[in-house]
Amino acid sequence: MLYASLACRLTLALVMTLAAVGKLRSPGVFAASLKGFEFIPAWSRRPLAWLVPAAELLITLLLAVPATVTAGFVAAALFCVGLTAVPTIVVARGTTVKCACFGSSEVPMSGWHIARNVILLAAAVLGAVVAFTVGDGVPGEVPGIILAVVTAGLLTALTVFVDDIAALFQTPTPASGRTR
User: Fold this and answer.
1) In whole angstroms, what is the distance from residue 165 CA to residue 174 CA?
2) Do the beta carbons of residue 3 and residue 139 sit within 8 Å?
């Protein structure tokens, strides 16, 4: 179970770091993207543009420090509940809001974003359960560690590139203004 926990820990730390860097690279773009969320008060958008990446970096730090791994998993789980709720509300309301989770994107939120966030939530919950029951140490056998690292890399790539993966399953639309 410690290998699964390590994979979850690495995945969450990588995803949170990449998301924070993407947002901090252009905080104005992220703040502007929050305008599409009708349920977020206008006064809170600018602070959220800084607080969200700060929370992501804090979770990464908690997961990186051995003494705070359990707290990191709990914080990640709570954070991922919010991350899952946001696109769920957007999709349920039928509104079109672009996902700026990793910086800027032209892709509107969809069920793919909900699924991605549910997987991150599951990773956080699994990591927390293992940390509470077995402990939060790092396992010692190299093949298991390598498998955990490869798994984390794969899960991180799938998470970060969910928009591109979703595009593979969409029916192409003809470009406007083109004639045959």
Assistant:
1) 20
2) yes
Q: Please state at what angle helix 69-93 crosses helix 111-133, rounded to 10 degrees.
A: 160
What pLDDT tens digit does each residue of the chain (180 aa) get?
Answer: 888 889 999 999 999 999 999 889 887 788 878 887 777 788 888 888 889 999 999 999 999 998 999 999 999 999 999 999 988 988 898 888 887 777 767 778 888 889 999 999 999 999 999 999 987 777 778 888 899 899 899 999 988 888 778 778 877 766 655 554
Structure tokens, 138: 């790092």
Separation between Cα atoms, residue 144 and residue 18, nearest integer Å: 25
Predicted TM-score (pTM) of the model is: 0.85
Residue recorded with tokens 């990191």: 72
| Angle between helical axes of 69-93 and 2-25 (0-180°, round to 10) | 60
CB 7 within 8 A of CB 145: no
